[in-house]
Amino acid sequence: MRLLAFETATRRLSVALWLDGELLQRSADMPNSGSEVLLPWTHELLAEAGISLQQLDGIAFGAGPGGFTGLRLACGVTQGLAWGLNIPVAPVSTLQALALAAGDGDTWAVLDARMNEVYAATYRVAGDGVTELTAPVCSPPAVLPAPTFSVGTAVGDGFAAYPELQQRAPGLTVCPDQWPTATAVARIGARIFANGGGVTAAEAQPVYVRDKVALTTAERLARGGVR
Amino acid sequence: MHEEYGGVVPELASRDHIRRLIPLLERVLVEAACHRSDMAAIAYTSGPGLAGALLVGASFAEALAQTLNISALPVHHLEGHLLSPLLGKSPPEFPFIALLVSGGHTQLMRVAEVGEYELLGESLDDAAGEAFDKTAKLLGLGYPGGPALAALAMKGTAGRFKLPRPMLNSGDLAFSFSGLKTAVLTIVRSRSLDEADKADLAAEFQEAVAEVLATKAIAACRKHRLSRLVVAGGVGANLRLRERLDAAMAKFGGKVFYPELELCTDNGAMIAFCGAQRLLRGMVPESRGGAFAVRPRWPLNELAQAF
Question: Quick one: how far is CA B133 from the chain centroid?
Fold first, then answer.
């Protein structure tokens, strides 16, 4: 199976190519310039592997949560490639990809969501298998429930942005400088496809988690705003 | 979708775009009895506009073009509007004067050829369509209220209220509409208006906008000795504006060209047409291996540098 994978939910952008378990990756710390590198990196990886776009079997992308613009960049490029090639898509949770990067065991994955909030979920990782223990939420760190496990890993830049979160789970090993990567997205995506999963290009959509992005006129008025 | 928020929320617009893109594309291909492999190139709006919304179209188009091994053509949104009357049954010949009036722009341009545009004058503040929408909001007509305001104006009489004709005699081809909105606000605050008053005020507002737009458009034609005027953009659908433009141009011995009504508002057909014209003329940007960028701010007179 040959898969292409994108992960652009954070400032760390990456593209990976999965060839029956073998992985090639390009990544860089370059927020706001994903559109300049995603497709050129794709061509570089394909050339390195000696295959063409037309030989891909599927595409996996980090669907979020994360920066809205980054999510739509990966999703838009994924939709365009998958629709043009007529191949299926595996949307992969960015928090799952982050948890996978932390390795086996129970993991509390927390990403800085800006605006004094974090995206968080808990997972059990075994090899390339990631089981969701609690679903992704968008929450102020102060009221984020602590994980139910006391041994494991706390991963993600949420712990760098809000160090006080570490005190909520003192038994966990903290890895604040791990990022969700396209390599992890590819590994999870490969399992999704192997289990008969995957969706059409049109069904490939970002998972924003933060859904309250504006106030309606009625809500503004209720808060004492003006029309 | 944006009505309950009282305006366009960029993030919600972007979310909507990425949901609808493929279903719409598939519908268009079925209606046109085309297959994806029949496409010769993919044109998309790369600016100006909302960055998030632009990125949806750009990322999809650029990626799709790679799989089909065809060119992706970034198109300037306003160029789409400018050329949209050429899609009509009796298209104008080049060169012509174009009056571009929408919620985002009020501009007069001299169009010599596809890709050759000279900006003659534009609004110094609000766009004409923006003034329509804001005035509609002041009169309690909701959002987007431009068309509702025009409908209300049909029931009223212009002249009973007196509104200014901003920059009518400025001697140049510039516009200003924010003062007009303020003048309406002053009237709304100074007294209570019944339905008939509101209709009269709407009629006077519409008359003021139409008079300024028509006067300056004719002045541009006169100055550049051109008898063809093209009107594009959403406000170009306004019937009173059309009446005034037609009458003034007839007196001048010229003709006004409008896009088909359904092509007045933002649409993909005008972008496809623009891309086709560029493709036919070999005006295809050099490929950058799939690297692309959107341009939320992109003055039309910088267009030539893109090719």
Answer: 14
